[in-house]
Amino acid sequence: MCWHCDNPGKTRADYLTEEVRPLIRKYGWMVQTVERGIVQPGFAYTVGLTDAGLPELVVTGLRERRSGQLLNYFAQQVVRSGPPEPGEVLPAEVGWPSLEVVPLSSPSAHLLTAVLLYGENFRALQLVYEDEHGNWPWDREFRGGTGGQPVLGARGRG
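== DUF4262 domain-containing protein ==
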């Protein structure tokens, strides 16, 4: 269940104060999930990497738990080694498919919790994954489940 559903009557400001900021202070970022709709897949993104001068990370079309695992893993990598470049393909690692880095042209259109903290002036990178057959969302053969894997930016260098 979502925080807002569990806390009726509380505001977005309460959410930032009671949930978001404490998690960022403790871990350096938090993962915000957005539940899937009837035909559109859910997505998840980090909030807090901006405080370290880094882009937020986004993934679409994965289940909530898997999204959190992927974003937490790569957020640690970004904090340790710096962000990947737009257009860079990250080779498959144990448990993860290959990923291509796609910059979001308008992160504020999708990442509401980040907008509440930072305004509209922050960067975000989407980690786009290949399917089990090595196809990408822009390939006709891509199979990504209900709603697929929306790509929220333009491929290539940012």
